[in-house]
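Weekly modeling sync, notes
Attendees: S.R. (lead), two postdocs, one rotation student

Agenda item 3: backlog of single-chain predictions. S.R. asked that every request posted to the team notebook include the full sequence so nobody has to chase files. The rotation student volunteered to paste the first one in as an example of the format we agreed on. Action items at the bottom.

Example entry:
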Amino acid sequence: MKTSLFALLVLLAGFAVADTTNSCRLPDVPTAREQAKQSKKPIIILRHGSDWLHDDAAICRKWQKLISSPVLADKAVYGQFDDVTGQTGDDRKKILPVECFNMPEVVIMTPDGTLMAVLPTKMVRGKESAMVKVMEKMFRVCPEFCKLAEKARSTDGIEGAKAAGQALELLYDRDAVRCRALIDIINKKDPEDKTGYRAQFCWEHMGMYKEINNRLKGGPEGKLEGKDRDFDAAVKYVSKVLKNKRIKGERRQQWLCGLAYIYRQRNNSTGNNDWEPCLKALKEAVDINPDNEYGIGAAKYYRNLDRSAYYVIKNDFYDSGDQVVGYDKEWRIDVSHHIKDPGIYTFTLEKRKTGRMDTKDFRVYVNGKLADKSDDPAKVTNTADFDLSSLPSGKPKVEVRLLSRCYDGWYACSGVIKMEKKK
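Predicted structure, as returned to the notebook:
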């Protein structure tokens, strides 16, 4: 009996190991790359969390079914990357051509391991049709991409950079900007960006701002600061980039936001009050796509820099995190639901989250008409008393207006709004 129980435990342990050691039953990355080299097929790697990812089993079932379908079978070499197969997080930089921070993700590479695409977590967990669409495109462009990539490596100067840029144009923009193998070629062979491909592909968000700041400061080693910065040189550079008709969509939004950044820095440093160029750049960015990250961000800055715009707050919670740092902005706060009858009321912004925000110039409007205001509009405070002893009948709209200036950016100030009648 003891022997049988022991044998059963060993058998169960064996099943457990088999189930978690290679949960999608695919080769590891080095093996897949060797197979791709021999077969000259693209490589598709699923990076997932094995047994500890909550939906790993479902993902593997879906993935196995997908890659064995007639649409994808034999079109590529498939592999996986996870800790259980002996590939650790530290191996990402060594054996994958791109940093992957979320799981699950899918990395698509050429037979020689050059990055072509990354399917994000949302897509991998979503509909198979979206993944198939990307993979089918990569299958179509792979031969031409490889041909151009090889030309980029073997050709000197501008022509080599041009071939690298042409290869990147075959990819989705979101992936092209992560293909370091070709981006490094463009940077090396066309440092003055005569092809326009450096601006198009070589700088993501922070890299673009670094390049802009280099011009503002007078070059990479420049020491210019404040109002002495070379704003004209920076505007000239970004304006030239925007003449490149190949830069479209989100990439164009990015550079338009960069142009607005230069104008904003110029005005803040020199006291120039001509905000039209800045507002124009931001509006162009919003018009391209108001719903993505750049469009939403540009709209936020536009709303704050537009002197005719204001924030409307309809509940009893405020958050200065929605406000661009360093600018006075009018808030209009509906407090009608607090007003039950005439009297003297105390309005208060009660801070709940640490952050520096100055508020001043408190006024109260009843049905759109000024009813009372603070004695000293310039005084920075978070409270004010209002005389509402002469309220019209019915249910009047009572609105407190004030000027707010936020200083802390990410560390915004937030809290609750109170409107209490004095006894």
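Discussion: group reviewed the output briefly. The CA atoms of residues 311 and 331 lie 5 Å apart.
Action items: rotation student to repeat for the remaining queue; S.R. to check formatting next week.
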